[in-house]
Design goal:
The longest helix has 29 residues, at 105-133. This protein is 47% helix and 18% strand. The protein has a six-stranded antiparallel β-sheet, with no helix packed on it. The chain has a four-stranded antiparallel β-sheet with strand order 5-6-7-8. Helix 3 (37-44) packs across helix 5 (78-100), helix 4 (52-72) runs antiparallel to helix 7 (137-163) and helix 6 runs antiparallel to helix 7. It contains seven helices and ten strands. By secondary structure, the chain is an alpha+beta fold. The chain folds into two domains: 2-163; 182-283, Rieske [2Fe-2S] iron-sulphur domain (Rieske Iron-sulfur Protein).
């Protein structure tokens, strides 16, 4: 029964079009604020190798949950955990807002309510800490417990965004491509300097030719599944790079490494060769 009620709540949020009037302008503004490459890479977790927000979210959740437990035991050390959770919530919110700015439609609406729930939890915890400092411990405990309840609502929605809506998961985790050399296109049909999509054993692969060099990456962006062949190619000093047209993730073509977030996972790359006038690819051993 409880599961059905939660699923119904999520469904209503996903289809609440009126939330777009609030969500879209905020998401657009957040996107502008995180646009600089150092900010984007840091908040996305590009330097870490996977999204930063899930890692940080464990800190306030753990701190506030344990504070509630210590409050039940009437241990004053709970005050320290309430304060620690408040401090940890700030970078957690920043990383989450960065990820949310890349969403659309149902995911954006859910993310807005997720953020509102967690913001409510933060406000309640701040009020709890202030009450504790005034030696109003009963009020402080009640506010903290209410904050934990709001946090769990936000956590449920956050889990739904990740595990059901697949926001910010690796979209290249399963399709790998052929292990043996597979012909994908005639050499004469691959233009120099033009990103080209080909099929390699049922997997979409991006080919890029620069002179006599032919490079190949998975064509599906690891961040949110964007088509890299529709993006642009530039040079960053260490080689040619392709930029996803959806959210601006940039990858080096020679090794698939992330140059600019929000992507955190490198693109799978493939070996290439030319045989009898045809380009062949295979997964790198």
């Amino acid at each position: 029964m409880a599961v059905t009620l939660l699923e119904d709540l999520v469904h209503r949020i996903e289809h609440a079009d009126n939330l777009d009037r609030v969500a879209k302008p905020i998401a657009s503004k957040v996107g502008e604020l995180v646009k600089p490459r150092p900010v984007r890479n840091f908040l996305s977790g590009t330097w870490l190798g996977h999204p930063l927000h899930p890692l940080l979210s464990d800190l306030p959740i753990g701190a506030w949950s344990m504070a509630a437990l210590l409050d039940a035991l009437d241990v004053e050390a709970a005050d320290i955990l309430v304060g620690a959770g408040i401090v940890a919530a700030v970078p957690t919110a920043a990383a989450g807002a960065n990820d949310w700015s890349d969403t659309y439609g149902e995911e954006t609406r859910l993310g807005l309510v997720h953020a509102a729930s967690n913001s409510t939890a933060l406000v309640l915890q701040i009020a709890s800490l202030l009450a504790r400092r005034r030696d109003e411990r009963g009020l402080g405990k009640a506010l903290s417990l209410a904050g934990v309840a709001a946090m769990f609502v936000g956590g449920y929605l956050g889990g739904h965004l990740t595990f059901v809506k697949a926001v910010d998961v690796n979209h290249t985790a399963w399709p790998t491509g052929p292990d043996s050399w597979t012909s994908v296109i005639a050499e004469a049909d691959l233009a120099d300097g033009k990103p080209t999509k080909v099929d390699a054993g049922g997997v979409s692969v991006l080919l890029y030719r620069h002179g006599n060099t032919i490079q190949a990456l998975a064509n599906t962006c690891s961040h949110m599944g964007g088509p890299l062949d529709e993006g642009s190619v530039s040079h960053d000093g260490s080689g040619d790079c392709v930029t996803c047209p959806w959210h601006g993730s940039t990858f080096r073509l020679n090794d698939g490494e992330v140059v600019r977030g929000p992507a955190t996972i490198p693109q799978p790359r493939y070996e290439t060769r030319v045989t009898n006038g045809h380009i062949e690819v295979r997964v790198r051993p």
